[in-house]
Input
Amino acid sequence: MDQFSSHPLYRVHNIDTAMNSLWEFYRRNFLMLFAVSVVMSFAVQYVSSFINLNDLQSETDFTVILDKIKDLFVPLMIISLVNLLFSTIIQHYIIYKPIDSQNTIFSSIIKSLRYYIPYIIILILLSIFGGIAIVLGLVALVVGALLAIIYVMTLYLFILPVMMVEGTDIGHVIRRVFSLAHRNFWMNFGWVATFIVIVLVISLVLSGIILLPFAGSFLKTIFGSENASAAADLTKSPLYIILSSLVNALTIPLMPIFAAILYFNGKAREEYREQDYQPDKQEERVRVEDLYAKPYSDDHPDNPDRK
Output
């Protein structure tokens, strides 16, 4: 039997059970997931505080803007790599903790490293494919681009669960991601769209809450552009970094949990489909000879040829 069949997220879901399972798993594992997410968010916020975007806002020369963007490439790359590393760690913990009581966040940190490089390679390939899809979507106006973004997001969510459950072979992972995402496509697409809307609403509400202590500074930017740089500098304050890290940590675990739900739902549907279409056992099949009466033996009392 598949070891993951005992995972609490492993089942055939509908949209209601998917969201209920997400909330229950999030609630039961909140402390550890929140603690790891705080560290991740704080690291990203801290590195981001060294990125100065004010110069780009006031610059009009395109060549100068390109030069300044090149200077930001390294810190932006560091932020991306840190995000990917922590995403891999959290996803590993969500996949393996429920089926292995000895698995801890520290063992997930070590074991998740084997998925890190293949994950980056697949994301590079996905970004190329996604960029083409989004450009084609723009040809079909904004709605087409939005649909392309949701589609690419659907593919993205399957990557880590497939890799961690079925192996790191890049070719196999890509094939399985497309296979699982396209099977029950509109269901997966609708779930991802719903999930994105929910997370965006939650993030906007939480972001509004942490901005309340700094509301005066941000309101000044509405009445005077000369205060825009001061408001941008406010995001580098220690209080803002701490509050933003705590709030972001509330939503960070939602995506890997939802990714596991998507994958296990697809895997469970495959399993049940195979069971539904499994051929009958040999002894239960009707044979040709069963359609005809068996001849009597020579010594049978009802044999009409018996003498």
